[in-house]
Design a protein that fits this description.
Layout lengths: L3 E2 L9 H12 L15 H18 L6 E6 L2 H13 L3 E6 L2 H13 L1 E7 L21 E4 L1 E2 L4 E2 L10 E4 L16 E5 H4 L6 E6 L16 H6 L9 H17 L1 H22 L3 E3 L10 E6 L5 H10 L2 E2 L10 E4 L6 H17 L1
Parallel strand pairs: 1-13, 3-4, 3-5, 5-8, 8-9
Antiparallel strand pairs: 2-10, 6-7, 9-10, 11-12, 12-14
Pyridoxal-5'-phosphate binds next to helix 3.
Amino acid sequence: MKKHNFSAGPCILPKSVMEQAAAAVLDFDDGLSLLEVSHRSKPFVDVMENARSLALELLGLEGKGYKALFLQGGASMQFLMVALNLLEKRAGYLNTGTWSDKAIKEAKIYDDVYEVGSSKSANFNYIPKGYEIPEDYDYFHCTSNNTIFGTQMKSFPKSPIPMVCDMSSDIFSRQLDFSKFDLIYAGAQKNMGPAGTTLVVVREDILGKVSRKIPSIMDYKVHISKGSMFNTPPVFPVYVTMLTLQWLKDLGGIKAIEKENKKKANFIYSEIDLNPLFKGYSAKEDRSNMNATFTLENENLKETFEAMVKEAGINGLNGHRSVGGYRASMYNALSLDSVKVLVEVMSELESKA
Ligand SMILES: *Cc1c(COP(=O)(O)O)cnc(C)c1O
């Protein structure tokens, strides 16, 4: 039976990518597995270089002073790595959810953090607006898409200081002027590959300005100078990420996938709004095109709904424990057809109720 994978992460990946990845595990280079060749061998160095340049190309950042790195430790490690490399006195953070909250906590270990805006008191169901970014801070940090609560920044401030963005859950899903950002990071497992690597895209000229000593493995400059091979890179996640980026490029890039992502989001949100049994969680104008969060109004229908969902082959629909209800994650590789299956189940529930 066909599965419809709405999981929030690790997430669905294109089937063709899975097949190529599986084949490379068995035979990547002349009978040797991808998992057993040296990361210094030419075939793997090519993979790393290709992944790095595809990332910059898709974001439209080639030749603009940016470097792409594939690091380990997840987006969670970037919470502290950003601060170690950029925080000298004070940074401004926009707190839009659990992930920003965690980023703030880690940065505070190193120095002063000021929350320029926060929607914490509303359990993060909207994106704060109209905040100001002080000119004399080291950098401004925001989270483009709030994976857990289902909100997404639809516009970004004109920041007078370097702008850092955690794009883990919506990178490569929509067109933005990426050159507005000075550092972008994203864990691969939401929209570009398997867990185990994190993409960092950084404008080189913002680095090297803090006075603290930075441990080599935490230093972006070190990783840049070593071509993202300071230590043994996670070969499999980097390879699969490269395949996914190539898949996206072949499809027509971010512009093409954004159209699909908008269709999918419109489809589910119109059902949520029209069907009296369901209620959207986040403020309408801030709704995420990646993660749609909603609740079932009548608790008595919970069992029936969940049985129907299972019957339809839908997977990964449970909401995060801090929100409850349901969350339909619609990353790049999820087809519109899968969203249609979910919407059908929702409307069928209405006709039964
Ligand atoms: C999942 C997620 C993270 C955490 O990523 P890890 O790679 O597990 O550390 C951070 N930020 C956002 C926005 C996320 O969605």
